[in-house]
Amino acid sequence: MKKYFLLSLLISFATIAKPTKSYKKPFIKHIADSSITQIIDSFTQRFAPDKRTAIFQIDAYRKDNQLIVTGKTNLIEAKNALVNQLKAHNTIVDEIKTLPEAELEDKIYGLVEVSVCNIRYSPRHSGELASQALMGTPVKILEREDNGWLLIQTPDKYIAWVDRGAITAINKAQLTRWETSNKIIYTRSYGVAYSEPNANSETVSDLVAGCILEIQAEKDGFYQVIFADNRKGFVAKNEASIYNKWLSGLNATEESLDKTSKRLMGVPYLWGGTSFKGVDCSGFTKTVYFLNGIMLPRDASQQVMVGETVDKSGNWVDLKTGDLLFFGEKRDDGSERVVHVAMWLGNGEFIHASGKVTISSMNATAPNFDAYNFKRYLRAKRILKTGMVGVSPLKSDKVY
């Protein structure tokens, strides 16, 4: 499960969990009054209600009859609006750090150069896994630690830390050149890029479904490719597709979602996983939809906010293959805590990452009946067609 309450707790005490590079206040003689705090809190709730996708860490204190405003944010317009409002009744010293940080110069973009990039809540290998990004994914770089770890934002807006060895930093011109280059997408579940157009040659890198690489040429049944860090390799043509042709030929349907979901059968559960190497519940649904040309938000508690609600009562006859089922608990105040997501297959069955990717049933007489999730079912959302608001079709958004 991708538990939102745990994620919120982690974020509350950290930069997206506990960054080692943080601003330090000078000696504070007088803390800002409550009205200032309320203004800052209102801006935070308005512009950065989800700390997984925005940074707005602002504080203020008084010193020598001045209001010192400190912290950091990647929301420049929100920061400027806040400072302007505070200026109305205060003499302001603006010490807010804006992201991307100036030290990055013009290299504020990056490309994932490994098959599956592990993204963590804190800038260390022992940090909890937050998400993953596949080879060829363009990211925005916001900050760099002294140890080289990078704070990045992925195309689904998720913000967390990555080892510098997984990312090649580039500038805007390089990003534009890559976006317009001829590329392939790897379509087999697993495979490799070879050093020569020969399956018996050395391996340059492993690959998983969804990896994207730039093509240089075609030779002897292979695509000659170049990686973001300028390594060169060869990928078998029968294991990949020209990206633009793949994208133009996509037509996400109930049948295609069903077929893609079952390709992941047996893939192990991995908290934070979003690839064929391992998935958590929302990473599974995200991967299925991505391979059908649709980018979903990262977590179950975010995915439940998109699409069209098609059921709340467990009336399975109203569901269609590909609908997302959400599970959790209803609080006394009427709100919900979403902790799990699955995909409906039809005939009372759904597929989800629970221990491993498996198929379960809502039918109490079925051998694969899932009593636990049956009891905590909350609602079903439809993404295809009528529910596309809030998601990113790759055809129109041109992410890659």
Overall CATH architecture of the largest domain: Alpha-Beta Complex
Structural class: alpha+beta
Major β-sheet profile: 7 strands, antiparallel
Summed up, the domain count is 4
Beta fraction of the residues?
A: 35-45%
Mean pLDDT: 91
User: DSSP helix count?
Assistant: 10
Q: Using the alpha-carbon principal axes, give the shape.
A: flat
**CATH topology heading of the largest domain:** endopeptidase fold (from Nostoc punctiforme)
What's the total count of β strands? 28
CATH class of the largest domain: Alpha Beta
Please report the distance between the alpha carbons of the first and last residues.
28 Å
Please, could you describe this protein's structure?
By secondary structure, the protein is α+β, with helices and mostly antiparallel strands. Helix content is 20%, strand content 36%. A hairpin with a 2-residue loop joins strand 2 and strand 3. Keywords: Hydrolase, Protease, Signal, Thiol protease. This is C40 family peptidase. Belongs to the peptidase C40 family.
